[in-house]
Amino acid sequence: MLEAAVERVAPDMTAQHVSITLWSVLSLAATRAVPLPACYPSLWQAACGFEERSFNRVQFSMLFHAHLIHTELVGGVARGEVTFPPWIMHQAREAWMCQARDDVSVSSAVKEIVSILGYLGIRNEVERLTDDGYFSVDVYLPNDDVALEFDGPLHFIKICDGGEGAAPGGVGDASLASTRKTMSTELRDMFLARRHLRSSSCRTSSSPNWKVGRRRPSTLRRS
Length: 223
Fold this sequence. Notes:
By secondary structure, the chain is of the alpha+beta class. The protein folds into two domains: 2-101, no CATH class; 108-219, Endonuclease, Chain A (3-Layer(aba) Sandwich), CATH 3.40.960. The protein is built from eight helices and six strands; from the N terminus they run H-H-H-H-H-H-E-E-E-E-E-H-E-H. The chain has helices at 2-9, 15-32, 40-48, 57-74, 88-102, 108-119, 183-200, 209-212, and strands spanning 125-129, 136-141, 146-151, 156-159, 178-181, 204-208. The strands form two sheets. A four-stranded mixed beta sheet has the order 1-2-3-6, sandwiched between helices. It has a two-stranded antiparallel sheet with strand order 4-5. Strand 1 and strand 2 form a beta hairpin. Helix 2 (15-32) runs parallel beside helix 4, helix 2 crosses helix 7 (183-200) and helix 4 packs across helix 5 (88-102). The protein is elongated, with a radius of gyration of 20 Å. The protein starts with a helix and ends in an 11-residue tail after the last helix. The model is unreliable at 163-169, 197-205 and 210-223 (pLDDT under 50).
């Protein structure tokens, strides 16, 4: 169904449509094991056909994110040879790195955790960039080489079970709802795990901040 829809609308896609579609099919492939459509290489070819000025900064960032997903997470299952636009490692990469560096905010939960870590005498760095500059980590503990992510409600979605006979993940009784991370959060965790486990042997901890906030200083221990 997804492949048929992509093939149907591909000829009339705008630069925005191409950006969103590439990110979507790659995100589904990485997090849900959805096969890439046969027309996947053509989507990148379509991106190559647009001039740089056709994309704004948000779309550039989305395309570079898609490029990262392809090269690091799902490239081995791509169907056919893929050609990336010449600007993917220039304008698009710059837009993504600017977002990682500048589009950050420190939540009250993170400030509370940092305060507790300081009380315990544990050195920490807030919003530390990964070595490649592609991602910003909420809190980094340099002495122990540990990366911490504290995720609030916006990093999670509710999935309702409508009861017997209802479609899984559909709208139903909220009392039967479960939570799962958003796709963007899942992708972030996958990228951070690759970087820290591979290059600096870090642990990545990702917890809802409403749970972390209930911990007392005495329950936070260095591992």
